[in-house]
Amino acid sequence: MKVIAGTRDFQIKDPTVVTIGKFDGRHKGHQKLLREMLGFRERKGYKTAVFTFDMAPAKVVSGTRQQMITTNQERRRNMERMGMDYIVEYPFNQQVSHMPPEEFVEKILVGQMGARAIVTGTDCGFGYRRKGDAALLKRLAPEYGYEAVIIEKEQDKHRDISSTYIREELDAGNVEKANELLGEPYAIHGQVVHGNHMGAPLLGFPTANLLPPPEKYLPRFGVYVSLVQVDGTYYGGVSNIGRKPTIDGENPVGVETFILGLEEGADLYGKDIQVQLLNFERPERKFAGLEELKEQIEKDKEYAARYLKNRKDQAES
User: Fold this and answer.
1) Which of 151, 166, 202, 245 could be bridged to 286 by S-S, CB 3.0 to 4.6 A?
2) Contact predicate 25/182, CB 8 Å
3) What are the tens digits of pLDDT across the range 70-85?
């Protein structure tokens, strides 16, 4: 997959089928759009191209920082896994925010991205104040020679599947429901950093600390059963998301994972790992001391082992 980022001066010479959006989370609704694009590639040979912005437009338009379920890097991984040929992360600023929707279609989607087909959802919005919509795409299609395909929203029990819906479930700790809507486990990627160096001495097995970037949308603080991918191998884990209130000092919001079954003494520092959340066990809390924390983590390990065994048994039955 070719990534076009950090520039507004680009040209895709291949005929393409294009979609536009934030693609935050690559949920089931997004996957429906992307599969439609793959169908165009198979039938007509068009390259698949995703247009998105390098930041949430709200940051420029209103000055508010919007956290995303998937970071830009995670979004790239998702699109590559789905088989996309191009992703354009267009630099967003005030000038771009005032671009008329007709100009956006003519100059960017058709002119620069080579769109022969445009696939969007019924709720798409683009151009100045999001005045561009699915109806406009259909109206402009004959003039610019592309095919407009509008996809109905994917639903869950009569509610549209959306990033907002998924955030609500993550806020409540309902990670299993969030994963159902995503069609895959909610995940946090990152490079293992040094923490308090208390995991192995206190608990007897390795810990991995991640510091997610500020733009990463995190679920309810607490302890989760997780799967951890290290060097292509998955291990069970117990992941705490939060500020480690039992540990003295001002601790940044982080993800600390106690990895089950990893070889003792394994050096994880500097490694890129992925932590997938499977089940919310309990909220984060402050314990009276390290001994009480250690006792609770032993219970967390037992809970995780039972959950993972049941999950495996169900998958095999």
Assistant:
1) 245
2) yes
3) 999 999 999 999 999 9
